[in-house]
Give the backbone structure.
Amino acid sequence: MFREKKAQTSSGLLMLLLLTVVAIASIVGFVFAIRGESVPLLLSSLLVAVVDAVCFAGLQVVNPNEARVVLLFGTYLGTLRDAGFWWVNPFTIRRRVSLRVRNFESTKLKVNDHDGNPIEIAAVVVWKVVDTAEAMFQVENYENFVHVQSESAVRTLATLHPYDAHEEGEISLRGSTLVVADLLKKEIQERLAQAGVEVIEARISHLAYAPEIAQAMLLRQQAGAVIAARSRIVQGAVSMVEMALEELARKQIVELDSERKAAMVSNLLVVLCSDRHAQPVVNAGSLYQ
C-alpha cells in the first residue's frame, strides 16, 4: 500500500540564482579558454555548462490546490503539495495531480428497485483527491475509477430500497432524501477509499419510474393520494358530527331519539364528505307515520 509523503525540495529562487551565476561563470571560462587556447579550461567550462543546463530542469512551479508526484527511476520519492517555486532532483519525473474539489453527474441508469419496479436514477458526486500516492499507484485511472464505482454504488443503493415507502418509517428513494444521500455517500466512499479519494457529497439528481410503467405508477400515486385525502375528510367529518350532537345535547336545543340521530348523522356525513356541493332539501314531513 502506497502512502503519501512529502518530497525533499530546495528553494527554487535560490537555486535559480545559483544556477544563473554558474552559467555566467561557465560562459566567462569558455571565453577565456578560447582566447588563451586552454583545452582543459574549455572542457571544464563545457562540462559545467552541461551540468548547469541539466540542473535547470529541476526547477518546478506548484500552483495552489495542485500537487506533483515525484518519481525517480520508478521509485516514489514523495509529493510536492506546497504552492510555490521549488527545485528537485532534475532526473525525476513529476506527475501533476489536481487537489481541487470536483463533481460529476452520472448517466441515467435504468435499474430495478427493491420491489422490482424499473426506475431511472442518476446521482451527483462531489469529490477530491486526499492521498496522491494512492490515487496514482493504487488504481489505473483514478478519475475513471471514481465514475465507474460511483455508478455501481448508485445501482446497489437503488436495489436495496423501494421507490416509495409502503409502511411508516420505511426508507424510500423518493421520501427519504437525506437518509438516502447519506447512505449513498458512505457506499461510494467505501469503494473509493483505496484510490485516495474523499467523497464530500453525494445526492440523487434524477429519480423517476421507467417510461413503460410511469403512467401506471402515476395512477397508483393519484389513487393513494385520493385515499389519504378521503381518510382525513372522513375523520374530520366524524369529529364534527360528534361535536354537533354533543352541543345539541348540552344546550338542550332539541331532543333526538336514536332514529333521528341516525338520520342527522347520515345527512351531515353526506354534506361533509361529498366532493360536490350538497343540494339542500327542506323536509316538511316527519320520520314517523
